[in-house]
Amino acid sequence: MNDLADGYVTADGRQIGPVVMEMKNITLRFGGVEAIKDISFDIRQGEIRAIIGPNGAGKSSMLNVISGFYVPQDGEVWYQGSRRPPMKPYEVAQQGIARTFQNIALFEGMTVLDNVMTGRLTNMKTGMLWQSIWKGKAEREETENREVAEKIIDFLEIQAIRKTPVSRLSYGLKKRVELARALAAEPSILLLDEPMAGMNVEEKEDMSRFILDVNDEFGTTIALIEHDMGVVMDLSDRVVVMDYGKKIGDGTPHEVRNNQDVIDAYLGVAHD
Amino acid sequence: MAYTLVSADGPQSVPALLHRNAKQFANAPAYREKEYGIWQSWTWAQTREEVEALALGLLELGANEGDFIAISGRNRPYLYWAMMAAEMIGAIPVPLYQDANAEEMAYVLDHCGARFVVAGDQEQVDKVLEVQDQLTKFERIIYLDPRGLRKYDHTALDQYSALQDTGRKNRDLHINELEARQAKLNYDSIGVMLYTSGTTGKPKGVVLSNRNIIETAKSSSEFDKLRHTDNILAYLPMAWVGDFIFSVGQALWTGFCTNCPESADTMHVDLREIGPTYYFAPPRVFETQLTNVMIRMEDASRFKKWLFDKFMAHARKVGPDILDGRPVGTLDRAKYALGELMIYGPLKNTLGLSRVRVGYTAGEAIGPEIFDFYRSLGINLKQLYGQTEATVFITAQPDGQVRSDTVGVACPGVELKIADNGEVFYRSPGVFVEYYKNPESTADTKDAEGWVATGDAGFVEQSTGHLRIIDRAKDVGHMVDGSLFAPKYVENKLKFFPNILEVVVFGNGLDACTAFINIDLTAVGNWAERNNIGYASYQELARHPQVMDTIQGHVEAVNASIAEDEMLSGCQVHRFVVLHKELDADDGELTRTRKVRRKIIAEKFADIISALYDGSASVSTVTEVTYEDGRKGSIAATLEVRDAKVFADTRKMAAE
Asked: Where is each ABC transporter domain found (chain A) (predicted)?
């Protein structure tokens, strides 16, 4: 059983809403390789949904399907009650889906603040011409966007590095800046691709707290890929387990932990 | 200097001063805080409105006159207003050290019986909730930053801004009561209660009256000619008397602007942006800044390094004289002006000290080199000597009479007296009312005539009238051969070396002095980097043979200098260890203001001390440590005990 009823309230008092995104029988092929085979699952409003699996299981491909970067050969993506036609990633972003990347993709030469401001791009309405004149509406818009960016900088406690070029930051901080940029778009769904890879315990604790706080304060729905089992089990409300492109488990952390297929995939049995 | 009491019809309370400023300096900035990347500011008129709204909100909650309201968090305008609001309703504000752990907080909250706590953020709220069962009088928490608190049970929680809104909404209901309560405040009513950091035993609550606060603020502001256009940066703990007097007392008296940094990490950037004209920092801060400058200069190009060294040498020669207005040759002045353009000015700007007109350091002895460095740059850095019990000011250095080895002359209105055992006593309008619920200690410290024992030993220089402090009176002892033992004197000399962060000297009643030493990880770490020495932790670096050699060199240099002092030549350090952990307030080894707790250290490291005296070459030990989140762990280490060369008293030798 992997279904939570609408209005389900978690142990820490968060309310989980209706399904906002549904993946129906997704299949993704690269030439002859089937990266994702007939996978279906849903994401509910306000939940933290984890996708886990061994290396090469197709987790990142799945996230790329959600973010619109890959278009699956078969299957449907339903978002907010309607079927989503194939889209460009920026169109997906405009729909309120933001993401971070496994291998950090920031503008290294720009400051933290500027990087976070780029996250506001989808919210800017004035054109390039008006922005270059930078009067009236364009100026007002910039001020508003800066305000949002600053609130996020405050929220993620990166004020001290606001004006520091990203290239000078540690790995853990870069990850946090990436999260800040994704949040700057004020997304309704946030996709995190291995937000804690390569971090030490302390950095992981910090990042976990920020993810929970984001979910708590902004009510953002979060879908994340993570390798650290402890983190996944503590953070997420529901977990999808993938192995070799197939879904082998789906449910609450407790259910998944006791699922024989999942145990086999992680501890290793011979594959046919 | 003529000293006059505030006239009887002048403002007689902190809220009265606020009302005066709201009229007199209505549109001048009173408080600023950097938030969301921008300096937000409030004028005096706005400040009064904010404070009044909170005071009305507190009345709505049923706060009574004489209630204690605790305040805990980093320096923020809102928390300063909370103190003023408490005073407005006749309650007593009690600022707490924000980094105190839950147990320490529980002691203070229970001791004063605080009914309300104003907490800065979730961390502070959590600490109070953790210990609330031990508190009998505690009722509600008013919190500032709502982050993470949304899901908390709000039956005993109020958000600061919501409480202000309630206050504004029900203004008509409570305004008469509020005015009546303010009218009752006078010079003798209590203005604030501050807990001493407790170098020995439990913290004591020092009760200060409006008289203490206002008289001190007035005389010290006049002493340094503070103006309402001055700016200060409020970054030191709110529970410390100095911060209260600077950011509330003097700020209200002169009407200058108090600036709060965005966060502890951004302090230096904020300092540069504000460019305070009136600045206070403990010696440690100046020391760290100087160390950082020197480290960065090591990495600079050779030409820049040469230029820096050249001009700094010139600054050391004439800088202090120019600052003190003594005669200096034209050529030297011209060279100094060139240096100002090329080195001193940009350096001061980097340090954020370009505009400092009055700078103070206190709390510990400052190294003469460090002190002279800042003064030679043209920064008017001075020393003062004070205590919570004196509402800060006992002595201070007047402009033009600044030296690194004295703490200055008695402040206006302060009388000094040296007892037979060398202990310094003072009497002033700033002398505290009492220790809360502790009449015995009050009687021990303050006699019937109002003289207060400082607990420090010192003497007044006949020629200049300047006070010099040697050590804590109770720490001054004697060695077996009867010679004087003044540990702090030796420790300070050692701490003046940038490589040494902390020292504890033992030897009272013994035949020789020995020392525990903590290396400074920044300075020694940088040295290690430049010399290709790899290390993984403080512990590993601390026991590196070359580090030990360097420290031994420092100890011997100090021994040589102590040998020249007739009275204290017995205090030379015979043996020492470099400790395997940094002394830390979380482990109870230092106070929250980072003063050494000798007794606790002596008990905790008894095995190492015995090794220092039994002649062994090394000692193995296991030490319990407490992490910031309260968990405990332990560190095991084998420490090398080194012998240092000691010197015969050169003067005695010559006499024989």
From this structure: 21-269
